[in-house]
Amino acid sequence: MTSTETRTAAVPLAGTPASAGAAVGPVVRVPEPWGEPPAGPAVPEDRREPEAARIAPAGAAVSTRMMDTAGTPGLAEEVSDVLYATAMMAEDPALLGSAAALVREHGTPAPRAVHESAARFVTALQAAGGYLAERAGDVADIRDRIVAELLGVPAPGVPALDRPSVLVARDLAPADTATLDPATALALVTVEGGPTSHTAILARSLGIPAVVGCPGAATLAEGALVRVDGVAGEVVEVPAGTAIGADTSAAGPSAVDGPVTTRDGRRIAIVANIADAKDAEKAAGLGAEGVGLLRTELTFLSAATEPTEADQRAGYAATMAPLRGKPITVRTLDAGADKPVPFLATAPEVNPALGVRGQRLFDEVGAPADRVGVLDRQLAAVVGGAADAGVELRVMAPMISTADEAARFVARARSAGARQVGVMIEVPAAVLNAPELLAEVDFVSVGTNDLTQYVFAADRQSGPLAGFNDPWQPAVLRLLDQLCRAASVTGTPVGVCGEAAADPALAVVLVGLGVTSLSAAASALPPVAARVASVDLATAQRAAGAALASRDVASARAAVRDALG
Question: Does the annotation count 214 as an active-site position?
Fold first, then answer.
């Protein structure tokens, strides 16, 4: 991202729309990560032990700062998850111990030792391939932060913004962007990434317009005045003197206008994804009809011991209270993979994304008895908290693949007092098993983010694989079509609570496929509701057919755009 070649100002740079809205501001470029720290001279033998002893505290300091950021009230749950996981890496004894050994045995200065040790881990992860290869970037980010701590210099990342600006980067780590102020960060543009990247999720949570996967952004000069259109997915330079700030010239609705139906009366529930009371208050203020996904991980991710049932109940009640009288769908603990829970003490796995995560941690078949009880206590707390808050509770389990798994969860949830019980559809096998699985549950909710990454075997946190992790992928839409066809036979409601539901045009496609509820970050709901209300069911079905018949993401978007006029 060092090129400053001249381009024709009137030609927009094309990228992927990631967060709705538009803004004008001067470009502030996020620097690339630093190079390697100096290799020498060697540390004298009598000073090696004190030098080695500096490494662990540096890792702990980095971890503490990330943990503090992860616990920021109102922070998007997905971002908190990644920050917690990354914070644990900063204190990884294997990484820090390897670096300390380089100091003691070879006299390598501590910053250089951390860099070399991390390089070995990065190389090993990349060689392992698959999920582990995609964690190499996380290790590199931790490396740079620990090295900065040892050198006594600021950590790499987003520069301080002293005026409203447009941030342009190759990619943005959640640790860099978690506390951005929308008053100064007017918009985000990244060269890499996709619509389900953490940059995109964070931008939607903050209400910041964003365009990702925009290769041409590498040519934007520092200080250039640009307009970022997060709906069209375009970035274009504008003349000097253009007003800086949010561009409201094409502003859409500011709230969901009552119960939403298509023009010919098909009822579609427009509900919110939330993680805490602040999210719930925002959803209520924007007119959300309820909650399609209440994530419960934040209660557990930083806990050294299991939270008591009473504490959980009080926390759930406080989160649900702003939406009294409305339906709220709670997802039980989705731990494992990139969301480790310390007190569960699970064994290391070669490929955690394909391992024991979600409901698999607590299934009565194969899970230790003490771990099985964690889910039962959570279910009791959720049911009690919902009663205290006066909401209509629905409970669902993550990572379900078979009808037998679904049946076991439904039985346990009903034993705890839950009346409406469903499961997440995130694994292709769940779609293939739909005729049997749907017969066991009251509803299903599709997590398009996980479903997409499992369909393509492409980690959704990976910048290089972002092209696969696009909910417009025809392969994903064809799976949803198969699921909705099976649900039409059993009469089972199908919701979508992944990022796909935040895209107004794709929301119409989902309605055309047969989806009955759409759940997204609260800020995305008004334009989604307005777009759904603007079409009749036949038009939505034509748009869905056009997308299903498409060859790739680009042609699917274009075909739907033509179908919707």
Answer: no
